Structures are given as C-alpha cells and as structure tokens.
Amino acid sequence: MRNHTNYGSSKSREAPLPLEIFQDDLPRAVIRPNEYLLLDGEWKFAVDPNDRGVAENWFVQHTFTQTAHWPGSVEQHLAASQHEGSPWKDKIVVWYERDFQRPEYASSGEEDDTIPQLTFGACGYETQVWLNGNPLLTIEGEQIHVGEYTSFSYELETLRPVNRLTVRVASSMDADIPRGKQESHVYKRGGIWYQTFTGAVRSIWLENVERNRLRSRVGVVSIIEDNLVRFTLTTRIHDPGLYKIKLSVFLPDTGGEEGLVAEDEFPLMLEAGQKSQRLVLDVPGALLWSPNEPHQYRLVAQLVNEQGAISEIETKFGLRKFEARGSHLYLNNQPIYLDGILYQPGNASYDQIKRHLLAMKELGCNLVRIHIAGVDPRIYKLADKIGMLLWVEVPSPHQSTLKSRENHQAELMRMLALIGTHPSVVIWSLYNEDWGAQDIAYNQDTRKYIVNMYHYMQLAFPQFLVVDNDGWQHISFEGRLKSDLLTAHLYTPDLAHWQWMLDELTKGNLDTVAAFPLVVGDPFFYRKQVPLIVSEWGGFGFENYGGPVDDTDRANQITLFKKELGKRSVAGDVYTQATNIENERNGLIDFETGALKVPAGLLASKPHT
Questions:
Q1: Residue range 556-565: average pLDDT?
Q2: Rounded to an integer, what is the distance from CA 382 to the centroid of its chain?
Q3: Nearest C-alpha neighbor of 197 from the set 391, 374, 413
Q4: Cα dihedral 379/380/384/386 (nearest 10)
Q5: CB 580 within 8 A of CB 587
Q6: Cis peptide leading into residue 577 (ω within 30°)
Q7: CATH code, residues 36-209
Q8: Which of 68, 250, 380, 537 could crosslink 259 through cysteines, CB 3.0-4.6 Å?
Q9: 605 and 594 Cβ atoms separated by less than 8 Å
C-alpha cells in the first residue's frame, strides 16, 4: 500500500536541502506521525449552469460525463472540457465526485479511538461535501464552508469498504468576497486585474486522527531576551477529562530523544469541543532565526489522557523578534533594512514557487511581499528553511460594505490560525491601496473596523507588525498612526522625479508624494516616530509605470533608484515585481524556470541581519 503514489506518511515528508529533492506533499505546517491517503487525481466533473444539483440530489445519484484533475482550478477544468461560455463571468457552480477504497489503517469500528478525517488544502469560495450521499459538517460545524485560501476538515463516520465522495463548489464575481486581484463585478480583468482562479485549487487527503487530539495549528511567539517561547495549541476533545500536554523541543533533523533541548508538561481539565491554550517553554541557550542564520527547532507536542493514550503533532519553529522603534526596524534587537520584492505567484505550481523564492534570495532580497493573494502555504515553510522574511496580506474584497468587512475579518482569522507558526512571517497588511475600503477617508465604520483589527492583532499576535492600508490613506486617530509602518507606493520612471518624491516623503510632506494623501482621519505630523517603507516602486517595463523594457537598461535604472533610497532615512523598500503575470510584464525572474533576467545581488543595498 505504501508504494502507491497517493499514500504517504507525514513524518517521511520532511527532507533537508537541496531543494531539488525536497518533497512535501501536504500543504500544511504541522504534521502528524500517521499515514494519509491523497485523493488527488482524476475526478468525475460536471458544470451546474442553473444551480439545480442540490434540488435534484446530484449527491445521491448523477451521471457525470466529464472528468477533471484535482487539484486544479475551475477555469482550467472548464477550458479542458471546452465548456461553452467559459471563462465564466457571473456565477459558477461545479460538482466533483470520486470513489475511494477505505485504507487499511482507517477506522473500521465505533469502538476505535481514532476518527477518519478528510482535509481540503483549499477549495471554494463555497464548498459543500457529501459522503455516500450524506451531508458532512466541517469541524467548525459548517454545512457550507466559505473561503478559498485556507484548509478545512471533516470528521467522518465509519467508512465503507468503498466510499463515494461528492463535492459542490460555487463561486461568483461578488465584490464583497475576499478575492485579491482576481476580477469581480467592480474590477474587470486587464492591467493589474487578473482572471479568476478558484475551485479545487489544493490537495485533498484522508487520514486517521485521534478522537481527542491537538489540531494541526500552532502559534509561536518568542521572548528572546529570556529564551522563552509561547506556544498556542488547540485541543479537539470528544471525551472530557483530565489530560496533559507534553512539549518537547529538539534540534532540527534529529529523531527520538536525540537533540532534546527542552521539555515540560502541563495538566489540563478539558471539556468536549475545541479550546486554545497558551503554554510557555524555556529553551536555554536558544539560537535565533534570521535570514542569514535561519536556525529552526523541532517541536513535538503530545496530548496524553489519563490512560496514557497519546495524540501527537510536530512542527518546526524559530525564535525571533521583529519590531519597529522610531524610524528603524530591528530583527533580534539588531537594525535591519528591508530589501524587498513584490511577488504575485498567480497559478504557479509549488515547484515554480520554490524556484522563484530561491531566485529572489539570489537577487539580494531579504523580504518578499506576497501580494494580496492566497498562496500555497508550503511557501512559508520554505521561507523558514532558507531564511526569507515574508510580508503577507489578506486577499481584499472589491467594495466597502458591512458584508465585505465581515468576509474580510473571517478570512483574516482563518489565515492567522494557520500562519502563526512561521518565523519568516513578520508583516501583515489588512488592506492594499484601499481596495475594499474605498471610503476609508470619510466612512467612520470602515475606519473603526480597520482600527479594531489593528488593535486586535497587536494584542493577540505581537510577533507581527501590522499595516492598516498599504500604499496610502493610513488611518490617524488623535494623531496616532494605526499602522506600525508608514508605507507609500511611489511610481515614476524619471530619476529626478524619484529624488523629489523621496525628499517629500522623508520631510513629512504626506499630501503631495503619492497618488492619495498618505494619512486620513485626524492630523498626523511625521517626525520620524514610525519607519518609512516604500512598499512599491519601479515596475519598470509595465506600460502603466513606464521605464526601460530592456533587461540591461532596467538593471541600470534599478541601481540608480536603489542608490537614492540608500541616501535617505527609509527603513525598507519593495521593488515591483518578481515575475511577469498576465499583462504586468515587469518581472526580474523568468516565471517558468526561475532564472534571473538581471544580475544577482541587484536588490541588495545594505548588509542583512
């Protein structure tokens, strides 16, 4: 059974560099010491143009005449089936179905202390699932899961020898939905707006999990001055009682008790359901994580009941501290300048993402800003491993309404639950260029929501710096900026105008420098009390931004512009962008191969920490 390409063991999927042989099938940071069955591959497929499938009980019986490969986008599947009217322009409903045999290791009786669990790496925007014609509820109790960028799971009842899995996926151009730069009813495809990429976009797998267990999400906050790490773990309990959580920290790439550096136990009385718990562990003599020295440790967390039964999860983590003090940024109490690049992975495969990230490191970057997109979460693990700081963003809705804010908050919470493990992630943007918050300058409800989310993240996730609205129109309340960074998007191909813009920015002339005023709300007077980041610039070669198209001339112009940045009190910059995507032809890296189009080290300006 284990020779089958769709069977695997979670613990066998970690491997050291070189990355050419780095294999990691499951898109998640936390692994279990169990076997799993990947349900990727060929599925039956049908388009439901009139949305009649639920009423007609397609989940009970339906003749599927087409096939599609999972994972893959609805758009790819429509194109492959030559469906009339594709690409879709308003709403799309599609169905997937396949049979699978019960794995030998799967639960076969109610007396077992394990449960088969079905996990979708990502699917959406709306996903509804039936097993053998019976509707399933997610662990959170959803009949219809909403969201398309993060994973979700179902606990299954006893499996039959052969089982039928049916999935309905619905998406639309609704501008209230978090969609990043995918087109909507508000922003149409073209320029910086892209084709939709939705549906069954990541792997799906079946595994056995304990009835009483730790969920596969771990939050990590370091207190480096005291060699302390605060872990936030989530328990899932069916049988209330007294448990203990045992934490063990090892040097990476060690097994058994080899490399043990710290351990502790914590007794807990747990009720049925789900509960988060913070636990603090002392890691004496800890080596810190940084781009130059990406030291990682291995955490093994066990939930143990009174009978000694164990549920175990494992993840890598690093100790690091990232903060803003006055006009400077500090990593592990050492000043750092952010040499960043904007990255829009689009529909890149994980193999392409790996090549892109390594190429960005070769360019001299120590930061990648993953631009307003849902992305394969394995990118975070890779950044942890190779030493790359990440700036992540919530995919934005396209209009400002109460519903869009509710959707935005739900998406943010889903992302935070799964990304809080990674030392590489240091900055979050709530919004970008007021997409989905177009009324930020005058709508108190919009500003209040963003300020509340900023304050929440300050308290709950102190390991991150948070940007309220990247690019311009940051929020000031009583003269206090509700953003940890004052960021500006500055586009010009003219060197003299570039010098003028940087001078205006660093002097604090915030109304003249960007497309819109940099701050809205109460008056804000810049006096170097917050770091300045030019979070987008360049774009040389994209027709909207101008500048050289020839790679040699582009490299020369970048060198001149970076030199001007280095002359001023700026804490970091983000060149736009890493690769070409659709109409934005301004990439420095070949999308397919990861080869550099410009000299290595071009974007490095100062020594990296």
A1: 97
A2: 12
A3: 374
A4: 20
A5: yes
A6: yes
A7: 2.60.120.260
A8: 250
A9: no
How far, in Å, CA of 432 to CA of 469, rounded?
5
pTM: 0.95
Segment (H or E) for 354: helix 350-362
Distance from C-alpha of 238 to C-alpha of 213, rounded to nearest angstrom? 9
213 CB burial (10 A radius; 0-12, 13-18, 19+): buried
* Distance in angstroms (rounded) separating the CA atoms of residues 450 and 188: 26
**For residue 55, which amino acid is it?**
A
Say what the alpha-carbon torsion angle 266, 425, 419, 198 is, to the nearest 10 degrees. Answer: 180
Cβ 478 vs Cβ 469: under 8 Å: no
Task: Output the six-digit token pair for 235.
Answer: 């328990």
Tokens 């639920």 belong to 54
The pair of three-digit structure tokens given for residue 14, joined into one six-digit string:
């970690």
Neighbours of 455 (CB within 10 A): 12
CA distance 218 to 316: 10
The string over 127-156, giving b where at least 16 C-beta atoms fall within 10 Å of a residue's C-beta and e elsewhere, is bbbbbbeeebebeeebeebbbbbbbbbbbb
pLDDT of the residue at 252:
82
Name the CATH superfamily for 322-576: Glycosidases (3.20.20.80)
> How far apart are alpha carbons 397 and 379 in whole angstroms?
23
| Structure confidence by residue, pLDDT tens digits, 72-120 | 999 999 988 765 555 788 999 999 999 999 998 775 444 578 999 999 9
Distance between CA 574 and CA 363 in Å, rounded?
12
Q: What is the DSSP string of 55-76?
A: TTTTTT-----EEEEESEEHHH
Question: Quick one: which H or E segment has residue 279?
Answer: strand 273-282
Strand partners, 45: 66, 96
DSSP reduced 3-state for 570 = coil
Q: What is the mean pLDDT of the chain?
A: 92
Q: Give dist(CA 607, CA 416) in Å, integer.
A: 31
42 exposure class (CB count in 10 Å sphere: 0-12, 13-18, 19+): exposed
Question: What's residue 495's pLDDT?
Answer: 97
pLDDT higher than 60, residue 23: no
Take residue 99 and report the two structure tokens written for it: 């049979």
Burial zone of 100 (CB within 10 Å; 0-12 exposed, 13-18 middle, 19+ buried): middle
CATH number of 213-317: 2.60.40.10
CA end-to-end distance (rounded Å), the chain: 47
Written as six digits, the tokens of 399 are 């209009």
The two structure tokens encoding residue 39:
């349900």
Half-sphere exposure of 278 (CA within 13 A, CB side): 9
Report the distance separating Cα 385 and Cα 327, nearest Å.
Answer: 29
- Identify the residue whose tokens are 């929020």: 475
Return d(Cα 406, Cα 310) in angstroms, integer. Answer: 38
Q: How do the domains of the chain map onto residue ranges?
A: 36-209, 213-317, 322-576
Kind and range of the H or E element at 308? none
Q: How far apart are CA 357 and CA 341, in angstroms?
A: 10
Q: Is 384 helix (H, G, I), strand (E, B) or coil?
A: helix
Radius of gyration of the chain (CA): 24
- Quick one: 16 exposed, middle or buried, by C-beta within 10 A (0-12, 13-18, 19+)? exposed
Helix (H) or strand (E) holding 609: none
Look up tokens 């967390």; give the residue. Answer: 301
Cβ–Cβ under 8 Å, residues 501 and 490: yes
